[in-house]
Amino acid sequence: MLPIGLHQDRPMGQPSVSGAAPVAATKRCQREGEVFDSGAALRTVLFLSPTEGLKDLRWEGDAMKPISRDTIYFLFSLPALLLHTLLYALPLGLGVYFSLTNWDGISRSYEFVGLENYVRIVQDIRFLGSLRTTLLYAVLLVICTLGVSLALALVLNSKVRASTLFRGIYFYPAVLSMLTVGLIFRQIYYHLIPQVGQLTGIAVLQTNLLANPDTALYAVLFVNIWQGMGIPMVLFLAGLQTIPDELIEAATIDGAGSIRKFKSIVFPFLIPVFMVTFILTFRNGLIVFDFVRAMTDGGPGRVTEVIGLLIYRHGIYQNRFAYATAEAVVLFVIIAGMSFLLFKTLGKRQVGQL
Amino acid sequence: MKRQKTLKSALLYLILGGGAGLTLFPMYLTVVTSLKTYGESLESFFALPSSLYLDNFVEVLTTTQFMRFFQNSSIITVFSCSIVILFSPLVSYAIARNRHKAYYNFLYYYIILGVFVPFQVIMLPLVFVMSRLGILSIPGVIVLYVTLALHQSIFLYVGYIYSVPVALEEAAYIDGCGVLRTFVLIMYPLIKPMTATVLIINALWIWNDFLLPLVMLNANPRMWTLPLFLFNFRTQYTFQFNLAFAAFFLSMVPIMAVYLFLQRYIISGLTGGALKS
Description:
The complex is a heterodimer of chains A (354) and B (277). Chain A is built from 15 helices and no strands. By secondary structure, chain A is mainly α. In chain A, helix 8 crosses helix 9 (216-228) and helix 12 runs antiparallel to helix 15. Chain B has two domains: 27-64 and 233-277, no CATH class; 71-224, Orthogonal Bundle (MetI-like fold). Chain B is 78% helix and 0% strand. The longest helix of chain B is centred in the last third of the chain and has 35 residues, at 241-275. At the A-B interface, helix 3, helix 4, helix 7, helix 8 and helix 10 of A face helix 1, helix 4, helix 5, helix 6 and helix 7 of B.
């Protein structure tokens, strides 16, 4: 991508334009690079105030020992490499390792038990029930959220007056915390909906929907949709604005109806956004925790005990650390497998970048 | 024909307005209920408060350490976001301009594959690692947020840096700029739209996050964030829900104020950097 010469290492302050000079410069720099002054490198990399640092560079520009560009690039990448290894890769590895033991999270000793936890998980009725609840929840969440947000985006993109105002209103739940929203709706379900039920005489609404085993999951789902539609909606809106008006005009002239136009023009343009929002929403559904913890805490009974909550309970409260990490690994395999399948079906199509 | 069209658009506005009402209603309820006395709050949910009763706020602010929780949330969000937008562009720049080298290509996939790992998967071992390192504290949580933000922000930044022509950097090199100066003077200003996107995504996430503070900070009330405070006080406020709503309202004020003034930028920032490639 870079023309020759710009890829090469070159001491600072020795610009060269011709093709031959950089080669010599590279050699010299590799020799010097081995004994580079690390203090200067750190000074160069770690300054926080741009203007101050620039002044330093300008003043010391000639005096500084040349640092090879590779070294600087490497120093750029170092914090991320270390952090990611220590706090992401290592816990992941530890998780897989602990899932093969019987550690309870507290005692000093534990034994290696191989795949025993996994064997128990696939026979565990509580886990399987939780998995079914979570999958149902995630699928419904995807269908409803994408349906609602796409419909809203289409309406707001057509010539509606005050569409910016409506967009602002429909988006605002997305900036609130899931926990606060969950707690607010908990109060609404507890105090308000029964009042509405008594006024209107609808039997289902007269009790607390969150306490009713038949409705609890859907009551939580409703709140999740209420809050989760904002971001897909603005993404769809942005996707809709990439469609050239000429295409729509041409189709109109050719006599295409609105359904035909949506199928043949609008939807193909939206596919990248659609895939991104699909993955994001499905993932959010599979790892849902805040809403459930705030509103039902898994109840009534275990009707709303989703996997995220189960892992939390086993791992933090019931001292079944190893078992809970094994459950987490199963969740990971499901999510990774699903994402892989989606990307595979996408083929080499460029996905939007969120 | 024309009449049908007016009817159709009237129906459209009716649905849009109804939806907007449904969306705004919980907010209305929160504000109204937080201004009611306990007696009023029992009578009716919909009615407006009889007077501007502010004692609920006073009570929440004085009987709890609300300001401390607010401060904790602010510190965590501000520091995490600042570090993210200072450091992830650096590593993204190094990766984007060196992808032909094995190390940087590996680093790229090594980090962005984290997208596929849900937080629950690393949550328990992470608590173990953090307590072993002795940083189950606010600075520890900041470091964690920076790490957890890496994969998404690097993914976004690297893609964006590809779209910046190399010619500008070449010119800077020829004029004698080193890597860092090229980055600060040329690259950082050019990737500002993506910085806005990354900042908004992470600020919203970190300010509102609940699960990570729950497993890291819940043991020590001095370190609670706002979501933790609301969560821990939920049972206390179950019956005095005028106080509950006052607490909800107070904790929403900062983000709602920001949203009210910067709404346009937040929405376009979320999509602008992300979808233009």
